[in-house]
Specification:
Length: 433
């Protein structure tokens, strides 16, 4: 009975459109659980629809990224018309299957069926016409991208400050915490300092962790937002796409608070006296990066035993330039249902990934998520790490060019295997002149 009442409520708007007899027939047939019915008129319309080549619909996600505002508005109207046509078909199905009722022996069942048949034919025709319009729109967008589209020559650039690690840590942490407070984060979780070397990611050790904690406490002052969680880890059974993927002691006390994880990561190139410090605030519910700071440090020997053992050259990168891709990134960031991108590299180059994160965060509206870092840092607790998904529904692909420290960037959504160019990244070790 509850389901019937729900059905009655949702179908009230159709009573005006189809007439009272049609509405009663819809109710009766929904109670009887009748199966779909195909009329000759509907079948003819369906045969006409089958003649459409719908293969380009597989690329709708990719092509939507490339639409201008007018095309996106046209797409929304077409999609709404398609949804309405499909809804009408479901209603017509019940009308066509109407049968005599002992409760209403005087009902004109044939009239209800005839009206349902007419509605079905009209809905089939509307569905065909709007799918045809959708195909034409997507083909036009595809042709436009392969035509003489102006080349995007927008340049994003960054040149890092060079500081000692203690000064760099204080500066980066202060900026990250200020940005987090401005965005309404009430609890900032600090758990560990990480060191990323050519061998991978590892905990930086108690000395680095204690120094970072003291720095954060001094910055937090009377705000009382800094939290040092106990037994902080990913839930063993999580797939990474849940808003409650972390667990820690006394987690109930923070359930209603807006929480961010402070990720402090030193990036140490192979056999280098210098390195990079990346500090990020990561929303714990969405994995979205909400603040990021990247600084070059000139005294890696104070942090890395390998660097302290011998005199090593300065190999850390200091500047980056991203040419092109701004238009495509802007289009991707302005969609009604925005994509959330994570970095995916063909080569292990954490320095390049750090520069890309900084450049895109500062210069575009793309939503960046740090799910790969979360998995690398805390994935040991997972029951099935190979099935861990994270919060992204798209990727930024990083592919090396033949020239050293040069990479191509492409955007890809998980729903499509097609890619969208996002520029050429060039990295440099020396300050720009």
């Amino acid at each position: 009975m509850i389901e019937l009442l729900r059905y009655l409520k949702t179908r009230q708007t159709r009573q005006t459109r189809f007439g009272s007899l049609a509405f009663l027939a819809t109710i009766l047939c929904s109670i009887l659980g009748l199966v779909p019915f195909s009329t000759p008129m509907a079948e003819a319309a369906r045969n006409q629809q089958d003649a459409l080549d719908l293969t380009i619909l597989e690329r709708q996600g990719e092509l939507t990224l490339q639409m201008d505002p007018a095309q996106r508005l046209q797409l929304l109207r077409i999609e709404e018309a398609i949804r309405e046509a499909r809804s009408d078909l479901r209603s017509a199905r019940f009308m066509i299957e109407a049968k005599p009722s002992t409760m209403q022996p005087d009902r004109d069942v044939k009239a209800i069926q005839a009206e349902g048949t007419q509605i079905a034919a009209q809905a089939e025709a509307s569905l065909y016409e709007n799918q045809k319009a959708l195909v034409e729109l997507l083909n036009a967008v595809d042709e436009g991208t392969r035509g003489n589209r102006p080349t995007d020559q927008t340049v994003f650039a960054v040149e890092l400050e060079t500081l000692g690690y203690a000064e760099a840590l204080e500066l980066a942490c202060r900026k990250i915490m200020d940005a987090s407070w401005e965005k309404g984060y009430e609890a900032l979780f600090f758990h560990e300092v990480f060191m990323h070397t050519p061998d991978g990611l590892r905990a930086g050790g108690s000395a680095l962790r204690n120094a970072a904690y003291d720095t954060l406490v001094a910055i937090d002052g009377m705000n009382f937002t800094l939290t040092l969680p106990v037994n902080f880890k990913l839930k063993a059974e999580t797939a990474g796409d849940e808003v409650s993927g972390f667990e820690f002691e006394n987690s109930d006390a923070f359930e209603r608070r807006k929480k961010a994880l402070l990720a402090i990561e030193f990036i140490a190139p192979e056999k280098s006296s210098s390195g990079l410090l990346s500090v990020r605030a990561i929303d714990m519910a969405t994995h979205r990066i909400v603040a990021v700071e990247l600084i070059k440090i000139n005294d890696l020997s104070n942090l890395n035993e390998e660097a302290a053992a011998e005199a090593l050259p300065d190999r850390a990168l200091q500047r980056a330039e991203l040419l092109g891709g701004a238009q495509n990134m802007q289009q991707a960031s302005s969609l009604a249902e925005p994509y959330r991108f994570q970095l995916q590299s063909d080569v292990e180059n954490r320095s390049a990934e750090a520069f890309i994160t900084q450049l895109i965060f500062e210069n575009s509206g793309l939503l960046l998520v740090d799910s790969p870092f979360i998995k690398a840092a805390y994935g040991a607790a997972l029951d099935a790490p190979e099935t861990w998904k994270g919060m992204a529904n798209g990727q930024i692909l990083l592919s090396p060019n033949d020239t050293e420290n040069s990479f191509e960037l492409d955007l890809m959504v998980f729903a499509s295997e097609q890619t969208l160019p996002a520029g050429t990244l060039t990295l440099g070790s020396e300050p720009s002149e």
